């Protein structure tokens, strides 16, 4: 086993991540305005921003789903319980003792079991929930005649808002976890330049050296 | 004898001509008309009365009177097909002067006829008793006197006679008036509809003399530098039946907008603008989503009584009748934006409040209005609704409309718990309240006249009366902004059955905030423990 800096976040992956991050921030901010939590922008502008950004993000996601499926990246997110206990124990105990994170990133498996479960829940539950409730909410005009009294509109809007807060909670934990480990900057860097510290088997290393040398970082051969 | 002499003098003076109130009638006054009424010989005669003129009109317009006599403008009597109630000015009791019965000569001064002196019966059936001129004479060419049951200002004119718009009456030449006729102008409709309730904009709130020549900010359709609509542009008429009713409102236009000349029966916004009038932008589409729940007027008439003419917002009859040294008096405690002082107390009428740029009252409305008629029992312990707006959020047809909510305090029959008829007008009677300041006699006389049982005991009850607001549409830049309603305590705050994002934290939001707070707390505790552990969660080397 050799730890190498390997390109695991392709350019598309990084663009997806950061445009999604910006979009989610804008959506949370404008959504909070629509809900009445702050008054930093006029309601009408908030609705325009929220709707426009949401539609753009939906479009991005259509592309992302295609990319996840065709490149096999979706396999990264299959949840597993193998090693889950160790990771959970680390966050609940070991982290306070200054222990090393128990998970070693591998090629084809860069997420630790807890991350995989969290991202799987995000992708399989929260994102679809916010999409479905949001789109149904958006096209209210097409079904409002079936809903005198606005009960279903109320329900859809409430589920949408609740899901929004769940996603906001995810973002908080997601960002917080970047502070655990060597440094915040080091956690963020892979999502900027694409290179992540990965344990490579000799076969993987040899393969990459021979066939995809650009995926191995030259200067930081042995890591920082 | 003296009166006759005076009349003769007035007539002589009038014939000398410069005293005529009117300018010469404009040639071909009606745009696009094929007839120049100044060329009709039959109109070049000295008419002595209104019916004389009508007789002349009918020689060409043979069916006009028969058509008029079938309309609400004539009958003041209306059976609401939806509620079965008998409405119309002849029947209803309102929160202003109360009732027509026993007050005819004053109230019927705005009747589109001549000499209807007993509202218990239908108006006269003689076709020459229809008043063509009040609607068709050119502005300024014709005036009705305010207490002669619809008769115009012609000699002999009683001294101090006033017109229905509150001006000193001046004798008219009916011939000139007749030669000036054309399609009804704003002034024609306005002389009655702007001055209902005894003065400019007293009743409606959205119909005032400000609409004679309004700037765009007051009425985007009627501004002369804009579309320059007359009332009839929307209130189209067919065989003298005019579209639009306050008793049975076409709240929605169910049909399509129609090709030119096709539809002659609707006067709604949607009739021209459709129910999806906003541009195909993100916001425009969202606004179009509102049109099934929110009437156009709700956003596009942000306030009523605009344009510098205040409307009466409160009328307390219970304080009427106070005298100073045995004489009636008045107080003028409201200054209109144009500087005009308006009465806030009159011995004849009691206390008033006025308002300009008034924020409407909002309510679900399906177009139907149910009245509290004299045969209905009221609950005097609460506020009695003189009329009730029907509809609600769950019926699938109602929308949220703006209203003027008139606050009243008016007499009722304490024994029978019902609204009363009162005799307020009658300068020469010993029962009329405005002459004798005695409620007991005024009510007894009104009830007897109307044929309604009276217990003999009266009291005063608080009332609300609702007036749909639909005129004085503002330019789109002045329409309500989203934040007018989508905010805490916004304009829809009092309404149930409509989900208004931003008007309060919904259940899902409160649960969401709790979840978010728990997660944030968890993170804070976790982070705090790492700091306390002294290592900040960082690895050693």
Structural notes for this entry:
The complex is a heterodimer of chains A (224) and B (541). Chain A has 224 residues and is mainly alpha-helical. Chain A has a single domain, classed as Transmembrane di-heme cytochromes, Chain C (Fumarate Reductase Cytochrome B subunit). Chain A has a two-stranded antiparallel sheet with strand order 1-2. By secondary structure, chain B is of the alpha+beta class. Chain B has 16 helices and 19 strands. In chain B, the strands form six sheets. In chain B, strands 5, 8, 11, 12, 13, 15, 17, 18 and 19 form a nine-stranded mixed beta sheet that branches. Chain B has a two-stranded antiparallel sheet with strand order 1-2. A two-stranded antiparallel ribbon of chain B has the order 3-4. In chain B, strand 1 and strand 2 form a beta hairpin. The N terminus and C terminus of chain B are likely disordered.
Beta-strand portion of chain A reads 5-15%
Biggest interface between chains: A-B, 48 and 48 residues
Distance between the termini of chain B: 125 Å
Percent strand of chain B: 5-15%
Work out the helicity level of chain A: 55-70%
Assembly of the depicted chains: heterodimer
What is the averaged pLDDT score of chain B?
A: 90
Radius of gyration of chain A: 21 Å
Name of the CATH first level of chain A: Mainly Alpha
Largest sheet of chain A: 2 strands, antiparallel
> Would you tell me the structural class of the helices and strands of chain B?
alpha+beta
Shape of chain A: elongated
Number of domains of chain B: 3
Q: Helical element count of chain A? A: 9
> Averaging pLDDT over every residue of chain A, what do you get?
90
Under the CATH scheme, the architecture of chain A is Up-down Bundle
SS-based class of chain A: mainly alpha
- Unreliable spans of chain A are none
Gyration radius over CA of chain B: 28 Å
What is the count of distinct domains of chain A? 1
Describe the strand arrangement of the main beta sheet of chain A, using strand numbers: 1-2
């Amino acid at each position: 086993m050799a730890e190498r800096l390997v390109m695991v976040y392709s350019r598309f992956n990084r663009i997806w991540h950061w445009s999604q991050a910006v979009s989610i921030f804008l959506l949370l901010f404008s959504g909070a305005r629509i809900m009445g939590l702050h008054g930093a922008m006029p309601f009408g502008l908030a609705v325009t921003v929220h709707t426009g950004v949401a539609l753009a993000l939906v479009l991005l996601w259509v592309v992302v789903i295609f990319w996840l499926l065709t490149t096999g990246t979706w396999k990264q997110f299959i949840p597993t319980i193998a090693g889950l206990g160790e990771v959970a124990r680390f966050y609940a105990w070991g982290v306070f003792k200054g222990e090393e994170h128990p998970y070693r990133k591998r090629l084809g498996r860069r997420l630790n079991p807890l991350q995989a479960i969290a991202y799987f829940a995000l992708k399989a539950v929260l994102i679809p929930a916010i999409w479905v409730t949001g789109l149904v909410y958006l096209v209210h005009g097409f079904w409002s005649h079936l809903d005198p009294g606005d009960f279903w509109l109320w329900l859809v809007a409430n589920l949408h808002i609740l899901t929004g807060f769940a996603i906001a909670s995810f973002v908080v934990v997601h960002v917080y976890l970047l502070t655990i480990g060597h440094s915040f900057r080091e956690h963020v860097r892979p999502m900027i330049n694409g290179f992540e510290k990965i344990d490579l088997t000799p076969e993987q290393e040899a393969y990459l050296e021979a066939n995809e040398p650009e995926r191995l970082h030259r200067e930081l051969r042995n890591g920082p | 004898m003296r009166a006759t002499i005076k009349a003769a003098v007035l007539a002589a003076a009038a014939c000398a001509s410069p005293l005529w109130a009117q300018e010469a009638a404009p040639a071909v006054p009606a745009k696009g008309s094929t007839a120049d009424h100044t060329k009709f010989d039959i109109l070049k005669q000295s008419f002595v009365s209104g019916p004389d003129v009508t007789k002349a009109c009918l020689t060409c317009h043979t069916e006009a009177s028969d058509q008029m006599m079938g309309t609400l403008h004539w009958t003041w009597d209306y059976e609401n097909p939806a509620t079965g109630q008998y409405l119309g000015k002849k029947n209803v009791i309102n929160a202003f002067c109360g009732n027509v019965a026993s007050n005819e000569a004053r109230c019927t001064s705005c009747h589109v006829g001549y000499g209807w002196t007993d509202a218990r019966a239908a108006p006269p059936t003689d076709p020459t008793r229809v008043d063509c001129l009040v609607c068709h004479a050119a502005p300024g060419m014709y005036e009705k006197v305010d207490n002669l049951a619809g008769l115009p200002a012609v000699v002999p004119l009683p001294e101090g006679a006033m017109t229905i718009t509150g001006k000193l009456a001046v004798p008219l030449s009916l011939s000139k008036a007749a030669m000036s006729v054309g399609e009804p102008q704003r002034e024609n409709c306005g002389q009655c509809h702007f001055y209902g309730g005894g003065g400019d904009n007293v009743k409606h709130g959205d119909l005032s003399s400000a609409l004679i020549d309004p700037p765009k900010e007051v009425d985007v359709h009627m501004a002369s530098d804009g579309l320059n609509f007359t009332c009839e542009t929307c209130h189209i008429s067919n065989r003298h039946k005019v579209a639009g009713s306050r008793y049975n409102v076409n709240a929605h236009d169910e049909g399509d907008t129609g090709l030119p000349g096709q539809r002659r029966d609707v006067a709604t916004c949607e009739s021209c603008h459709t129910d999806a009038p906003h541009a195909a932008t993100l916001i425009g589409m969202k606004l179009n989503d509102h049109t099934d729940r929110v009437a156009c007027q709700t956003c596009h008439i942000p306030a009523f009584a605009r344009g510098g003419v205040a409307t009466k917002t409160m009328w307390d009859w219970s304080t009427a009748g106070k005298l100073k040294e045995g004489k009636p008096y008045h107080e003028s405690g409201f200054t209109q934006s144009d500087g005009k002082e308006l009465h806030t107390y009159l011995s004849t009428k009691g206390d008033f409040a006025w308002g300009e740029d008034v924020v409407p009252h909002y309510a679900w409305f399906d177009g139907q209005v149910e009245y509290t008629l004299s045969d209905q029992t009221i609950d005097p312990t609460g506020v009695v609704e003189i009329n009730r707006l029907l509809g609600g959020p769950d019926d699938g047809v109602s929308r949220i409309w703006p209203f003027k909510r008139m606050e009243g305090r008016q007499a009722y029959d304490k024994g029978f718990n019902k609204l009363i008829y009162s005799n307020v007008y009658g300068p020469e009677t010993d029962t009329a309240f405005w002459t004798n300041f005695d409620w007991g006699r005024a009510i007894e006389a009104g009830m007897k006249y109307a044929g309604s049982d009276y217990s003999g005991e009266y009291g005063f009850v608080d009332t609300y009366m609702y007036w749909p607001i639909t005129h004085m549409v503002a330019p789109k830049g002045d329409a309500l902004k989203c934040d007018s309603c989508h905010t805490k305590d916004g304009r829809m705050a009092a309404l149930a059955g409509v989900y208004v994002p931003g008007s309060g934290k919904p259940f899902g939001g409160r649960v969401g905030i709790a979840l978010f707070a728990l997660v944030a707390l968890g993170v804070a505790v976790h982070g705090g423990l790492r700091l306390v552990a002294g290592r900040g969660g960082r690895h050693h080397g």
